[in-house]
Every structure is written in C-alpha cells, then in structure tokens.
Amino acid sequence: GNKNITIATRAENDRLVIEVADSGIGILPEKLNKIFSHGFTTKAKGHGFGLHSCDTAATEMEGSLSVKSDGHMQGATFALNLPLVIAAVPAGV
After folding, report:
1. Across residues 40-48, what is the average pLDDT?
2. Are 3 and 23 spatial neighbours (Cβ–Cβ below 8 Å)?
C-alpha cells in the first residue's frame, strides 16, 4: 500500500521539537523500550548503533529522542526535542 512520511516542527516554550512520522510497519510494544539500546537491531545485517548514536547525540545537545508506535502495521513517530536557542547575528554577516 501507500506509505507516507510526515515531518513536523514546532516550538514548545524554550524547546524545538522535530517529529518524523511514518505509516510503515510500526514497532511492537516489547521493542519500544529497547529501541535506543546499544546493539539492539531488528535487521539481519544490522549493528544496533544508529538509533543509539542518535539518542546519545540528542542527550549531548541537552535534548532527547523519543519514539511512539501503536504496534504492528501502525507506523511510528520519532520526536527530537532540543533546546531552542536564538542567536544574535552580528551586523554585516
């Protein structure tokens, strides 16, 4: 069937939230709590470094990465939450 990806951004207080949602196969509830663990993968040739590295990078930027899914064939939504910093741009730049 048709697959969709939706990307949305919003500011919440002093935070920037970037959400990426898909209409794919979803994530089983028993895997949601392990998805950011180092070495966890569902792929035959996966290493389990990707989402763990993303979660670590978000934390290092004083943010967070989260996921939600209503289960198999229900898609998934990942949310990256980062501090919203508005920097002054020097004149002439």
Report:
1. 84
2. yes
